[in-house]
Amino acid sequence: MTASFRSGTPLEGAGRPLPQLRWDAKGLIPAIAQERSTGEVLMLAWMNKEALAQTLQTGRACYWSRSRSELWFKGETSGERQWVHEIRVDCDGDALILIVDQDGQGACHTGHHSCFFRTIQQAQGESPDQDQSGDRGQDDGGIQS
Fold this sequence. Notes:
Layout: E1 2-4, E2 29-35, E3 41-47, H1 49-58, E4 62-65, E5 70-73, E6 82-89, E7 96-102, E8 119-120, E9 143-144
Parallel strand pairs: 2-7
Antiparallel strand pairs: 1-6, 2-3, 4-5, 6-7, 8-9
């Protein structure tokens, strides 16, 4: 299922029943923001039913802050707004992708364009779950910035 956005109007589907979605025990669903022009994954956030309804109504990405327990429109204070052009639902109905136009520098609060700017480095022949550090508490998992 997809919903499409035309600039200045609500997303198609606003006001209509939502497709069958599988919300977690806290009433949340993961929402991935993907840049429309490049296909780059920008961020992962969470939505509740109200955040999804606000996104459909306004065409701006609205998420649920798990740390603050409140709705937040992406870029409300930073100006790094996300304009939603399409919402995709995965085959199980338990995850969303928001196809967005990203305003400003980018989506990440660190100043990076994408929140996914780090990679996990793996030595040749090493299993991803192998602990090479000898001390799991000190291991950064090979994550590189």
